[in-house]
Amino acid sequence: MTKIQTLDEFKKIKNVEFGLIVVCNKTNTLHQSNCQTLKDEDFTKSEYYWFATISLAEKSFDVMVCDSCKPEQSIVFVATTVF
What we know:
- By secondary structure, the chain is an alpha+beta fold.
- The chain has one domain.
- Helix content is 35%, strand content 22%.
- The protein contains three helices and five strands.
- It starts with a strand and ends with a helix.
């Protein structure tokens, strides 16, 4: 788990498109790092954390999966197509 401290870090993580971001607010929503619902202008409204895997995020927070990017479905799809 890495707390995303600055807007610049947030932008870099989104551009790399690797890992997951938990937005800590009322729902603790789990997103793919490239999720289109993650907006730069909302960065100061919540705390953001980066995780390499879903299991690490779920161990750290009680998360709700984003309805837009659906990170669990994407990770499963990649795993089944790579192997």
